[in-house]
Amino acid sequence: MEHESAAGEAEGRTRILVAVAWPYASGPRHIGHVAGFGVPSDIFARYHRLKGNDVLMVSGTDEHGTPIMVAADREGVSPAQLAQRFNGLIREDLERLGLSYDIFTRTTTRNHYRVTQDVFKTLYDKGFIVRQTMLGAFSESTGRTLPDRYIEGTCPNCGFSEARGDQCDHCGRQLDPTDLLEPRSRIDGSRPVFRETEHFFLDLPAFSERLSEWIGAQEHWRPNVRAFSANLVDELRPRAITRDLDWGVPIPLEAYDGLDDKRIYVWFDAVIGYLSAAVEWARNRGTPDAWREWWQDPSARHYYFMGKDNIVFHAVIWPSMLMGYGQGGEVGADRGELGLPHDIVSSEFLTMEGKKFSSSRGVAIYVNDFLSRYDPDPLRYFLTVAGPESQDTDFTWAEFVRRNNDELLANWGNLVNRTLASAYKNFGAVPEPGVLTDDDEALLQAVEAGFATVGSLIEAARFRAALVEAMQIAARANQYVSEQAPWAKLEADRARAGTILSVTLRAIDGLKVLLAPVLPFTSQLLHELLGYEGQLSGRVVSRDEVEEDGSAHAVLGGDYGAATGRWEPSQLPAGQRLQQPRPLYRKLDADEVVAGELARMERAAADGC
To answer: To 10 degrees, what angle do helices 438-459 and 39-51 make?
Structure first.
C-alpha cells in the first residue's frame, strides 16, 4: 500500500489500523480460530480500502508461547524449528483464505525484539515495571518451569474445574497458578511444585483510574466487551511479565546480559507485535517513519480483532502498556503518544457438531484441510452469516452445505449465472439500455442505497447484518429479473430485453462490490466476467523481508494500491465486452459431504490428532 500522507489528508481519508490477534505457531489453525480473528478483520479492512481509507492491517505468528515449547518438546525439535515450520503453514493458510494483511510477520524477528525491549525498558524506567518475588510453578517430573497456561485447576471464584493458571475462561477473572484449587499440569497431570522466584511485574493498579475512565467512554464497543472490561478494572493487581524460561525476548537490563534462564513472557511481547509489525512494514518500504501516521496521529483509528478469550489483553493490559509508554522510548522518540484502541471487536466461540474445537482430541477442521476440498468464499460466507459474532455458534457440515446451496448458490450465484448467460449469448456485451421503467429505477436505487446501509453496518462491526442486507438486495434483483423475464422478450421486443439485462448487469456490478469484503475471490471472478481488467481489491502475496543484519524471513503482504474497486454504485458502460460465463459456486451433495466429513472426524478422533 502506498503511503501518501498529504494526499490522504487533502481527500479526507481516515487512517485505519486493523490489528489482528496473533495465532500461535504451535500447529495448524482450525476454522474456529479464523472465525474469531481472521475473516471479520479482513471484511473490515477490505471495506475500508474500497471506501478509500488508508488501511494498515498487521499481525503475525506468536512464536514465544507455551504451546510452542510444549509442542517442540513433544516432537523432539527446538522451539525455533517448530515455529519456523508452522509459521509457513499458517501463512499459506491465511493467504489461501484471502486475508489481506499489509504485513503478517512473526515475533522472532530482530525488529520485534528491539521494539519489545524498548517498551519494557521505557515502562521500567518510569516505574511501571517492578521486581517482586512470587511462587513459580515447576514440573514435578522434569524440574522445568511450568507456564501458567499449562496449569489447570478449580477456580476459587466460580468453581470452574478447568480454569487455567492465568485466567478462568468461565468467569473471566485473572488468576495466578497459586490461586487454583487442586492445580495439575496439563502435560502429565502431576501436581506443580511451587517455589520462590523473582520476576518483573507490570503495575496494572497504577492505571486503574485512567483505564476505568477510558473504558467507560467507549459506548460504541460491543456490550459484552465493555461490561467484561469494566469488571476486570475493579480487581486489577500487578501481573508478572517474565518467566524462568530460555525461549523468549531477553530482558534488556545490564544485570541480565548473557543470562539464559529468564525471559520476557509471551503475553507481554505478543501485544507489542501490533506496534513492531507496523514499524517493520514502514522500514521495508523505505519510509521508516510511515508507521507514525497510524500510531502517533490522534485522528487514526485502531480496531482490534480477536476471540473473547483475549479481551483482557486488549482492553486492559495493552492499553495500560500504551498509557505507560506515553511519548517516550527509543521507538516513540517523543513525537506523540501511541494511540489507544478505538474498538475491540471480540467474537464468541465456534463449536463443531456440538463439541468444542480441540486439536488434541481430533475435534477440529483445519483451514488447510478444508481448503483442499472446498473453495474459500463459501467458508468465508458461512463464518460471516452463521459464525460466532455475538454468541457461541455451532458449525455442522449439514448447515454448511445448506448455506452454500440454498443461499449463496441459489440466490447470488443463480442471479449472476442466468443474467450473464443470457447477456453473453444474445448480446456479447453490456446491452444499450432504453428508457427505464419504475421497476428498473427501483432496483438500481435499492442497490445504490445498499452502499450506505451495508457500509454503516460494516463500520459498526455488524458483519452478519451487513451480509444479510446485501443478500436481500441480491434476492430483490433475482425477483426483478424473474418477473421481467428478458429471455422471453428477445424475439418480440429485443430492445426491452436488452434494457432489462443492462439494468440487472448494473445491479450485479454493484452487488459485486457490496459482497467483495466477504467474497473476494468470486467477486474478482465476476469483475473479470463483466469485462473489467485488473484487480477489484488487490492481491495477497508472500514475499521476503530483509532485516538490518541481512537475515530474511517471509511475510504476507499485498498489492492493494492499484486496485480499481470503489465503494460506490456501478458505472458499468454499455458496450463493454463480456467474458464467457462460468459458475461462481458449485453445488454440494449434502449426503456425500456430511457422511464423508463425519467419517474423517471419527478417524481423526480415533488417531488422537
So the answer is: 120
Q: Strands 355-356 and 350-352, how do they pair?
A: antiparallel
In 160-209, beta strands by DSSP E: 163-164, 181-185, 193-202
How many angstroms separate the Cα of 259 from the Cα of each of 256, 263, 532? 5, 9, 60
In tens, the pLDDT along 275-321 reads 999 999 999 999 999 999 999 999 999 999 999 889 999 999 999 99
**Which is it for the CA torsion 47, 50, 55, 59, positive or negative?**
positive
Q: Which amino acid is at 579?
A: Q
Grid look-up 531477553 returns 250
- Which residue in this structure is represented by grid cell 497504577? 206
In angstroms, how far is the first alpha carbon of the chain from the final one?
40
| pLDDT tens digits, 381-421 | 999 999 999 899 999 999 999 999 999 999 999 999 999 99
Rounded-to-integer distance, Cα 378 and Cα 372, Å: 13
Q: How far apart, in whole angstroms, are the C-alpha atoms of residue 47 and residue 420?
A: 26
Buried b / exposed e over 339-351, threshold 16 CB at 10 Å, is bebebbbbbbbbb
Answer yes or no: is pLDDT of 363 > 80.
no
Q: How confident is the model at residue 11 (pLDDT cuts 50, 70, 90)?
A: low
DSSP assignments along 342-388, one per residue: SEEEEE--EEETTEE-BTTTTB--BHHHHHTTS-HHHHHHHHHHSS-
Three cell numbers, residue 453: 446501509
Confidence (pTM): 0.92
* Distance of alpha carbon 347 from alpha carbon 35, whole angstroms: 8
| HSE of 432, CA atoms in CB hemisphere, 13 A | 2
Contact 354, 268 (CB under 8 A): no
